[in-house]
């Protein structure tokens, strides 16, 4: 008869629960044409304002501006965006809770940035998902730099006025922000990622190469 051996009981292995596979936490946001983004956002405002005009009737003409401001407040809500400079880059952090990369249109010009977050449930807004074609015969007529700058200035001014006048209004259908950048940037360098309701954007500044002073060559 073999002697009994005393040993330590080994506990049964526990079943380790792994986290369920959910949606991706980090998504890249594609760059769109800023003009397309701007026109898409305000095209929806124009159509909704016209519907408000039709509901009121043609006899109540003269309140077109009120219809426009009401439509703008219903569609384009305030977006919290923080823009800062860091060395050779301009960084931006925007709050877009509940939005995925497919819902966000990001447009960048050397001096301007536009973010348009659309929930996709509004028939008044069609988000641009295709960048302008390189072929001028296939793409739309380009907007010259002066006209584009004027459009951006007016949009930024209207948005700032709208925030001040309608700070206590019901939440709008979409989020919209257009802002002037603190430095000139290269749009092709744009890198944008949305994660857990935050949109991070990084833009490289345009490097200014100092011109060499002209040298006067004297012949002997």
Question: Would you spell out the secondary-structure blueprint of this structure?
Answer:
Elements: E1 27-28, E2 31-32, H1 34-56, H2 64-75, E3 76-78, E4 81-86, E5 89-95, E6 104-108, E7 112-117, H3 145-165, E8 174-180, E9 191-195, E10 198-204
Parallel strand pairs: 2-6, 3-8
Antiparallel strand pairs: 1-9, 4-5, 5-10, 6-7, 7-8, 9-10
Helix pairs in contact: 1-2
Written account of the structure:
With 220 residues, the chain is of the alpha+beta class. It has a domain at 27-42 and 77-129 and 145-204: Immunoglobulin-like. It contains 3 helices and 10 strands; from the N terminus they run ββααβββββαβββ. It has helices spanning 34-56, 64-75, 145-165; strands spanning 27-28, 31-32, 76-78, 81-86, 89-95, 104-108, 112-117, 174-180, 191-195, 198-204. The longest helix is centred in the first third of the chain and has 23 residues, at 34-56.
What's this entry about, in short?
The protein is α+β, with helices and mostly antiparallel strands and 220 residues long. It is built from 3 helices and 10 strands.
Lateral strand order in the biggest sheet: 1-9-10-5-4
Which geometry do the CA atoms define? globular
Question: How many strand units?
Answer: 10
Largest sheet: 5 strands, antiparallel
Q: Report the uncertain regions.
A: 2-20, 129-140
Query: Mean pLDDT, rounded to whole units?
Result: 76
Beta strand %: 15-25%
CATH class identity of the domain at 27-42 and 77-129 and 145-204: Mainly Beta
What distance separates the N and C termini?
A: 119 Å
């Amino acid at each position: 008869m073999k002697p009994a051996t005393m040993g330590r009981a080994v506990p049964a292995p526990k079943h380790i629960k792994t986290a369920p596979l959910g949606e991706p936490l980090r998504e890249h946001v594609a760059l769109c044409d800023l003009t397309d983004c701007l026109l898409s956002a305000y095209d929806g405002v124009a159509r909704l304002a016209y519907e408000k005009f039709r509901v009121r009737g043609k006899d109540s003409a003269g309140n077109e501006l009120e219809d426009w401001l009401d439509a703008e407040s219903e569609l384009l809500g305030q977006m919290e965006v923080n823009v800062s400079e860091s060395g050779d880059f301009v960084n931006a952090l925007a709050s877009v809770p509940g939005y995925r990369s497919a819902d966000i249109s990001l447009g960048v010009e050397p001096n301007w940035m536009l973010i348009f977050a659309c929930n996709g449930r509004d028939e008044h807004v069609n988000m641009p998902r295709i960048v302008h074609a390189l072929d001028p015969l296939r793409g739309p007529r380009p907007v010259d730099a002066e006209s584009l700058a004027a459009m951006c200035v007016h949009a930024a001014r209207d948005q700032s006025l709208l925030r001040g006048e309608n700070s206590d209004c019901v939440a709008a259908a979409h989020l919209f922000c257009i802002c002037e950048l603190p430095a000139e940037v290269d749009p092709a360098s744009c890198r944008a990622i949305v994660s857990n309701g935050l949109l991070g954007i990084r833009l490289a500044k345009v490097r200014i190469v100092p011109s060499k002073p002209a040298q006067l060559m004297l012949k002997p």
